[in-house]
Amino acid sequence: MHLTATAIAEAVRRDDIDPVELVTTTLGRLADDDLGTVITLMDSQALSRAGTAGTGPLAGVPILIKDIFDTAATTTTYGSRLFKRNVPTRTAAAVQRLEA
Fold this sequence. Notes:
By secondary structure, the chain is mainly α. The chain contains four helices and no strands.
């Protein structure tokens, strides 16, 4: 089943979808990805966020941050091997707003 972010958020608010189960399923799919779509899989952080699903408009919706946005304490390569060891100390404002 494919749902929009809005539909997922609404289903989480109605308790029709458990955000922890949704993130667990999503992480399983990403772990099986042979294409290397995700550079850094932040499974413990994702599960922690799902367990405290907040009240924002995207509460309970799994998110994936593109590797061009700094995320504190997480490898951010900007899509280049030159930055394979880059670990920012700050999180980009756009990412902070999305996470909120």
